[in-house]
Amino acid sequence: MITDQNSFNWKKIFCFKNIVLNLVGVALITLALKGFMIPNKFLDGGIIGISILVHEITKWPFGVLVLMFNIPFLVIGNRMLGKTFALQSLLTFLLIAISMTFLEVDPVTSDPLLIALFGGCLIGVGMGLCIRSGSTADGVEILALLTTKKIGLNVSEVIFALNTLLFLAAAWSFGISTALYSIVTYFSAVKSLDYISHGLEQYTSLHIISSKSDLIKALIVQKFGKGITIIKGERGYLPDKFDVKLDCDIIVTVVTRLELLRIKEEIHKLDPKAFMFIQYIKEASGGILRSMN
């Protein structure tokens, strides 16, 4: 059954797992902000970074700024993203605002490198858990999606442009050193968020073309317990033998980065001349993704 984006999916909103993920995510974001970043004027990217910058300049309450900057984008993007996502994200913004206003967290350290690494990791993990729960803790991607439709840039380009302006403003307000450490904080957060939201197991799509395709098929399926897909193709068309072409099977399998090296080594033993190429993929589901050994 397809869920209408214009209706609320209450089962998803009140799912115990999603509630726990969201609460833990907000707690980690609060710890990162109050324990590491805000006391030392370190910024993250996106709306949270803008809120920190404005908070330091105006001394307005951080929780109020988070709501003030995030909610307009949520309202504008409501139709595109769906009511369930909008409501879950609104609840996340409210939780962040409440926790930042009422929870007391002592500064953990004043060492800039520790702040950049651990503050960034904590806020990245927290945001990743919020995404896993079905919401977002930062409205910048909503803004990027909306801007993309207007000016033709992709989401990454819009976010990069916004964050560049943000870090330039940080350099002007707090000094170049703080801005540079804030960039380290941001990249630490992005990497942590990526691991949490997409999983620690990075999947790769391995394509193999070989004259010994039957042996390689058996190797992948029987020894490694992986599923395969066969694409019918033609090999040949070499500069000196352009008219020579042969039918071939292109073997495709999805493996983790830990399995990739082992499978490549075994294929090389069967056929040292096998042609292989790899594509990194963000997410894979269904089929046989894990070894059955």
From TrEMBL:
GO terms for cellular component: plasma membrane. It is found in: Cell membrane. The chain crosses the membrane at residues 20-38, 58-77, 84-102, 114-131, 151-174. It is a multi-pass membrane protein. Keywords: Cell membrane, Membrane, Transmembrane, Transmembrane helix. It comes from the Bacteria. Residues 227-286 form the DUF2179 domain. InterPro entries: DUF2179 (IPR019264), N-reg_PII/ATP_PRibTrfase_C (IPR015867), UPF0750_membrane (IPR051461), YitT (IPR003740). This is YitT family protein.
